[in-house]
Amino acid sequence: AAQFKKKVGCDPLSNKKAAFKLEDSVAKTKKILSANYEAGISCECLMEDEDFASDIKRDTFLEMCKPMMAKVQTVLDAAKAASGIAVDQIDFVEVVGGSSRVPWVKEMISAAFGGKPISTTMNA
Hints:
Elements: H1 2-8, H2 16-35, E1 38-47, E2 50-57, H3 58-83, E3 93-94, H4 103-112, E4 118-119
Parallel strand pairs: 3-4
Antiparallel strand pairs: 1-2
Helix pairs in contact: 3-4
């Protein structure tokens, strides 16, 4: 959104239709970045008949996700505390849902549970 605003001079997040288009493109790009190091993002006629296209690397995406990573860590810590089970008593961890494909989420969960491998087959 910031790149488009800088280039065109209008904020796509202030327009519901443009924000939805951008959110849809970002979701597709996020999925691509789960498997690839770099991905393109594009929106035709994002706002005021202007197209948007850009490339993003996984490292840049991870930097943008840092605030979310802190929230995920908080949730992991709370879940471990609420379970009342010691980490060494847990044999495996099953992760379900859309975020189960995100590499940094898998890494954080594995680290939180002592490096145990993460299973995502339940939702397959």
